[in-house]
Please model this.
Amino acid sequence: MAKDLQLTKSDIAKYRQEIKELDLSDKSEILEKALSKINTMINNPKLDQFQLILIQELSNLHNILIKTPHLEKSVQQKMVFALQYFLKGEDDIPDEIPGVGFFDDLVVIDWVIQEIKDQYSQYFQA
Model:
């Protein structure tokens, strides 16, 4: 179901502007908070397949940012934006809504990955 959701042109334009304006000085704090939230999700005994995919993609973005600090600024901004979006509890679909609360997070993260995948495909092997 989450894979069927798509960002609107308006959403994409808005997110691209937010990414362009993103200040990387908060990157370390965002990485730390994202890891904490990922770990909280992992400890949930009722994870479904969709949530496992979300955790895997988030962990991948997190690890890339940690292990490859030399990435160009625009790529880092996109990745940090995805993690920052995940950290928002009150985003397009509030995370607290059982069963669907993280759908928008996965859609945004997938969009970011598609934006950078061609340039950095070695990090996104199946």
